[in-house]
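Practice problem. Given the sequence and the SMILES for magnesium ion, write out the predicted structure.
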Amino acid sequence: MLYSTVPAHEKRAAFRARLATGELLRLPGAFNPLSARLIERKGFEGVYISGAVLSADLGLPDIGLTTLTEVAGRSAQIARMTDLPALVDADTGFGEPMNVARTVQTLEDAGVAGLHIEDQVNPKRCGHLDGKQVVDENTALKRIRAAADARRDANLLIMARTDVRAIDGLEAAIDRAKALVDAGADAIFPEALADLSEFEAVRRAIDVPILANMTEFGKSELFTTDQLRDVGVNIVIWPVSLLRLAMGAAERGLDQLLAEGTLEPKLGEMQHRADLYDLIDYEGYNTFDTSVYNFDIAR
Ligand SMILES: C[C@](O)(C(=O)O)[C@H](CC(=O)O)C(=O)O
Ligand SMILES: [Mg+2]
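Answer key:
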């Protein structure tokens, strides 16, 4: 009940230790704190906190409109609700290198286990859209150096995302990734790779963990976890997937309501009240007050 009792520094150490094994860690995007609990309950290794989801949730496009305060606030809400490590999307770091440093410390205070900073210009866009632009290498490296220097917990994972692949091709992206590692990146997020052979090539070129972004309706094919494991990927995210699923179901539900005036036929698709209460450990609150949970829920 209430919040996770695992301190953030322990989640970070555990995340590092698991990454060091070389296994593939699966991080679905938690679109709210409740979904983070479901991800944990199902047995995934971590949760991802997506910038695209945060902005969409606010009804905004993912073009760098959200502020550090908003991202940190949502990160804290999600991270404290799960024992799992959380990896958060810090977009371009919210400004100049000194802003990046403050971003890192603020997100560290929010309790995340890691964050990624990308090399796009501002205004940024989804990495799977056409027409992206990236900053020059020196600017990208300065962001990562500032990030690595700013953390107070050495286990906070600083991941560098490069969007160069879609602009200058795979070789340029690999060169950028190598330079980002030399600048202090603990892991690399090569955005919008075209196929598995490209993941293999990045894997061969660098020694740090690499992330695969299995976002739907984008530039990458949706590879299975087995395929990604086979080419040596260490972290896979499905950043927006749970939101897409939930919004798809919500839309169909509203259509049903309009058409028939009742949601009765949709009950089987809904999370049951009993399952919701189980997920939030409603009964556990009887520790404080035995009159809190003294009812039965019919299935
Ligand atoms: C991973 C990502 O940065 C995100 O914000 O979740 C997005 C996902 C998306 O828009 O599909 C991305 O740029 O790939
Ligand atoms: Mg993003």
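Check your answer against the key. The chain has twelve helices and eight strands.
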